[in-house]
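Thread: "does anyone have the structure for this chain?"

Original post by V.I.:
We have the sequence but no experimental structure in hand. Need at least a predicted one for the grant figures.
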Amino acid sequence: MRFNLSLSQNKPFDVVGMGLNSVDFIGIVPEFPTGNSKMKLLRFSRQGGGQVATALVALSRWGIKTRYIGKIGGDEFGTFSLNSIRDEGVDISSVRVEPHATTQLAMIIVDARSGDRTILWERDEKLMYRKDELRKEEVCSGKILHLDGHDIQAAIQCARWAKEEGIPTVLDIDKVESLTLELIKEIDFVVSSARFPKLITGISDEEKALRELQKVTNGFLCATLGEKGAIALANGEILYVEGFKVKAVDTTGAGDVFHGGFIYGLLQNWDLKDILRFANAAAALKCREIGGRKGIPSLTEIQHFLRS
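Reply from O.Q.:
Generated one for you, tokens below.
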């Protein structure tokens, strides 16, 4: 199936994203450490991160015109985070600086044996949008709007504006809070983490959880499943698209890159199965490198990988 989206051709950007940016400190260790121990790092990297910001970086590398909307603190980490986005060609003219806030940080411990990661993060409440800070003309300046659910009241406002303007919305969601269902009801494409359908429905079976969630939204539903690929519910039918196995160095950011790949496929009006295969491939190839952004593959790499 194809979605055949009616995308406005009069927008200055292809994709606008509102959500998280972060500074990620990533350390690869021989094995996950036990309590009260010391361990030498095998590798260390500092990179820009954040769900929406990383997806936009991937899209920008693939030739898509993008704008990022978010907040940074007035500290050196904010400067680093902002530069990491701007240097990738993403428009940052809508970013707000909170002078007395601390930029979001994450410490990521990666197990070298599997590439699996554990994330420790901190987010200053002052980075949440206050009433009237968002501008509709900026939020609705793209053909597609990409959101996450962390600043949930801001996300709901953005989604409603997009609906008023007929702009398709994509949501990257992995946690449940009081307004999560209200947000989901406003979204056209919900692409969640593997654990989210179970968290919000209480149903462990993947297919049954998606069908239960479909009762509260008319939107398309999909969940990423790591190396197993992705599961989607479209037009009442369940679709599994297998993932790709690679030698994983670090899985950080794989989901963010998957979302970038999904949005890229929407813009190309590909068949759903092709969209999910492309997103799976992009996410898998990213895992060959440390951090969420260093390993983002080029279009040529993804296309060659899929052909081979």
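V.I.: this helps a lot. The chain has one domain: 13-307.
O.Q.: and The radius of gyration is 18 Å.
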